[in-house]
Amino acid sequence: MTSTLPETSASRLDALVSASVGAARPAADASDEDRARWLESVAARLDLHADELVPLADAETHLGTPRLTGELARTTAQLRLFAAVLREGSFLEATIDHANPDAIPAHGDLRRLLVPLGPVAVFAASNFPFAFSVAGGDTASAFAVGCPVVVKAHPGHPRLSQRVAALVTESLADAGAPEGLFGLIEGVDAGIALVEHPAIRAAGFTGSVAGGRALFDRAAGRPSPIPFYGELGSVNPVVVTAAAAEARGTELAQGLAASFTQGAGQFCTKPGVVFVPSGVGFEDAVVAAVPDLAATLLTPAIRAGFGRGLAALAAESGVTVLAGDAAQDTDVVEAGPVVLATDVAAAVAHPAALLEECFGPVTLLVRYDTPEELLRGVRAVPGSLTATLHAQPDEDLADLVAALRDRAGRLLFAGWPTGVAVTWSQHHGGPYPSTTSIHTSVGSTAARRFQRPVAYQDAPAALLPAALRDDNPLGIVRRVDGVLGLA
Amino acid sequence: MTSTLPETSASRLDALVSASVGAARPAADASDEDRARWLESVAARLDLHADELVPLADAETHLGTPRLTGELARTTAQLRLFAAVLREGSFLEATIDHANPDAIPAHGDLRRLLVPLGPVAVFAASNFPFAFSVAGGDTASAFAVGCPVVVKAHPGHPRLSQRVAALVTESLADAGAPEGLFGLIEGVDAGIALVEHPAIRAAGFTGSVAGGRALFDRAAGRPSPIPFYGELGSVNPVVVTAAAAEARGTELAQGLAASFTQGAGQFCTKPGVVFVPSGVGFEDAVVAAVPDLAATLLTPAIRAGFGRGLAALAAESGVTVLAGDAAQDTDVVEAGPVVLATDVAAAVAHPAALLEECFGPVTLLVRYDTPEELLRGVRAVPGSLTATLHAQPDEDLADLVAALRDRAGRLLFAGWPTGVAVTWSQHHGGPYPSTTSIHTSVGSTAARRFQRPVAYQDAPAALLPAALRDDNPLGIVRRVDGVLGLA
Fold first, then answer.
1. Would you tell me how many other CB atoms lie within 10 Å of the CB of residue A102?
2. Is residue A98 within 8 angstroms of chain B, CB to CB?
3. By the CB < 8 Å criterion, does A117 face chain B?
4. Is-catalytic flag, B251?
5. Which residue of A40, B34, B51, B169 has the lowest C-beta tally within 10 Å?
6. DSSP for B9-65?
7. ipTM reported for the complex, 2 dp
8. Which domains does chain B possess?
9. How much is the pLDDT for A1?
10. For position B486, what pLDDT does the model report?
11. Amino acid B331: pLDDT
12. Which of B439, B457, B477 minimises the CB distance to A410?
């Protein structure tokens, strides 16, 4: 069902970026309340068009109506969360130190806040056509803090991208946002030119390790480097302790099977590597729980990649196929779930081959015999978005939790990692390669990626931003002479 | 007076980094109060040895006793500021969202805080042998949040570096800090190996554009890239409006002359480019105010670089020498101050040549005729740590302030940029090349460079860090269900 759209030309790209440069100061100067209304306007317009957008998304992504309906609701809730963040005001980190002749060294009046970085490039993902795409979290968080955005559409859902872009443009105009605040481009070359454009000040990206690293290298290699907030690939380790397998093995096996096949395994938080105790029957329970699934993956390229990844994993020495077909004919559109197994010795010996993300409905069970062997296996896992620990209440878990925390940004002690809440405390990020920065792409603090601090020294009141004036006209939480409060 | 010390060998470097890896978990697990005491122990020991350290620093840097006495006091005050930051507790950004089945999407219990990144590399600067060196701000802020540190000593003050390192090691041991928390290395190759060492998780750097960019490229080019917090070079633009020059030209000229020659112009915040109104006598006032200075610069390499930089600037077409000797014989140890002048047209035509940092006692006056020409000139200035605006109260300055804010991290409306307060609201950073990140290297938020967020989902109370427990045992400010407070 996908159609190919023409690549954005160099001159069109330049015009869009120039427009975003023109929008940067009005967006920065707009009040937080104004920007909150822009976000709410976009959210309302997308909700209004749900009946049109969801089928369009399903036609291009095959993710199904229930999932896409939920994803759209999540996307508009995300836009509204950032409106709430704007009204709460502490995202500005307003900080005031009055002049102090007794300090070491003595100092004048100094006031700090965060300001927008400027035009931002956003690279949309294939697997969340709403939540991590044209009007997704990167766009919402950049708009929130006053940054214009140019989105590079994902070729997996071009018609949906264009339609959402049109709705974003209309709703921003209706809400009085500056012209040029939003633009959409298409094509690989245009994307590279975007991240290298001198006027672009930061980039957000969700996608593969290979594609993300190539763009990260471009961003870092610019004459004037920019931050590249990439979410690349993640194996999301799960640990099932022997005690947990014994106490609730069937329930855990069912949960795992549902999680690694959810969305046909096309989640960045899919549990890809599962440490399981040997000889207690947990593997059999997983095999028994695997659903009878035949799913059309997002794109033919992802289908082919899944086939290649599976074949490579299955060909590794020490890897066995427990369930499903590891030699799938990728000319067949629909993919089926696969469970592989190995042991810690093999995983530790070949971490680059075995402990690498394989996008699609597959998981690798890694058997361990002892707690020490389990720790050794966990320490070989690359940086991940999440790590999940299923254990029993009376176990001594300090070393295991420390080892998992070293490798992941979110630690789960119940449930499965494939759901990602959109809240103040969410962290969706982790050590490389799961992300290329120490920041999150989901939750309220995602906005900080597109802000930089500025300190005002001895500024006349008339030249201070409202957030820094003595009378606190915005009524926001600030730090004054070291103390956080509403003063 | 400087001596050369042997390069750190590859095996010694590896041993030091291995020790820092060993210290990472005890440092992360230590209480904030414990870490505050480590910092205070280092501060007390350095203060106690001031009478030994200041003469040692002066012998190697020629910066003089008053300045170095003040710099040591500032350095120990900085260590104590981070102890205060630890006790205040909001640096952890503790955030709690209770489970909410009505949220979109519904979510479980989610709690976030910042944890240490792991072992940090610190590259010491030549020009602040205490404050930006072995026990300077990078080291203090990394220790504060629980990161072990390996410092690469600056060759400009090797004996001081070794002595400070010995005092740091002793005072940390006395305070009960884990072994391996601190190490010192020397030599260019060892520094490169340090930033490329797989166990190093971040780097702080203060130095030249060329040296900093080379290390930034290494950090970004690693198989697993790390954040490189570099402070490279800054021209720190100053604008004097026609009205200000008329109202208080002599006072401003004297302030400028004192600022650009302070510490023999070897400050990263030296005002290097000054936009001055044509034809109102301001240039003459600057020339009249230049002190009769003959200063020994930090190192022979810096002396030679100053001579080369001066000669290159003076050779540019459109540049004239207003005061001092632009063809200094760099075999003569002592350097004298120089005032150069050009106009906006020349500066805009050749920004790479004219608007680039020249480390040492020189400043470039850039004449403008109209407010529009002034704006054009300001917009050609590269990213800087500071920008200073001397204007009169009734002037319309919105465009000028916006243009300066685009290019700098600290905006001054009185005084001169060469003093840098160590406070909660300080921002010592700015667009590239002044820094390679959006973070500060001075002030309380410098600690955030060495932290990453972790979210705990549905964690049993016994496995939660103290900062995230329901009863708030640390008594710190947290965000609970979206509301900041002491709950």
1. 6
2. no
3. yes
4. no
5. B51
6. PHHHHHHHHHHHHHHHHHHHHS-HHHHHHHHHHHHHHHHHTHHHHHHHHHHHH---H
7. 0.97
8. 10-232+435-480 (3.40.605.10), 238-412 (3.40.309.10)
9. 41
10. 74
11. 86
12. B457
- Count of beta carbons in the 10 Å neighbourhood of residue B33: 11
In the predicted structure, residue B117 carries a pLDDT above the cut 80: yes
Length of chain B equals: 487
Q: Residue A428 corresponds to which amino acid?
A: H
Q: Bridge partners of B340?
A: B321, B364
Are B57 and B75 contacting, i.e. CB atoms less than 8 angstroms apart? no
Cβ contacts of B436 on chain A, cutoff 8 Å: 225
Query: What is the pLDDT of chain B when averaged over all its residues?
Result: 96
Q: Taking Cα atoms as reference points, which of A390, A269, A376, A275 lies closest to residue B463? A: A390
Nearest CB partner across the interface for A454, out of B220, B397, B409: B409
pLDDT at B246 over 60: yes
pLDDT band at A6 (very low <50, low <70, confident <90, very high): confident
Q: For residues A67 and A63, what is the distance between their CA atoms, to the nearest angstrom?
A: 7
Cβ within 8 Å, pair A415-B88:
no
Percent of chain B's residues with pLDDT above 70 = 99
Residue pLDDT, tens place only, B398-431 = 999 999 999 999 999 999 999 999 999 999 999 9
The mean pLDDT of A246-266, rounded to a whole number, is 97
As beta bridge partners, residue B230 has B205
Name the CA dihedral angle for B436, B439, B443, B446, rounded to a multiple of 10 degrees: -100
pLDDT at A2 over 90: no
pLDDT of residue A178: 98
Q: Which of A397, A412, A424 is facing B457, going by the closest CB pair?
A: A412
Interface touch B227/A433, C-beta < 8 Å: no
